[in-house]
Write a structure and sequence with these properties.
Length: 109
């Protein structure tokens, strides 16, 4: 048995980019930042921010593209996926969260 599930609450780092696949399915991509406060070895408090690449499809993509904007807080659930692609003769890897459930938190403003 295996489980591939991600749950994140964070803020959008940029306006979502929406496009359509060859078959007409909606695809929306955006980034979400999560932060963690912790003490460093000297006892000083600091904040560490992690950026997550998010991809969603279908109706979820349509809603995200319509209602989300930079700075908006979201709760999302999905799975991790790493894809491999070649660019300029070099192999690159990109890890993304494929979101299947997004809840908009806070107000649109």
């Amino acid at each position: 048995m295996s489980v591939n599930k991600v749950i994140i609450i964070g803020r959008l780092g940029r306006k979502p980019e929406q496009r359509s696949s060859n078959s007409g399915n909606a695809i929306t991509t955006f980034s979400v930042a999560t932060s963690e406060r912790r003490k460093d070895p000297s006892g000083e408090w600091g904040e560490s921010t992690e950026w997550h690449n998010i991809v969603c499809f279908g109706r979820t993509a349509e809603l995200a593209g319509t209602y989300l904007d930079k700075g908006r807080q979201v709760y999302l659930e999905g799975r991790l996926q790493t894809r491999k692609y070649d660019k300029d003769g070099q192999t690159h890897y990109r890890t993304e969260i494929i979101a299947n459930n997004i809840q908009f938190l806070g107000s649109r403003d």
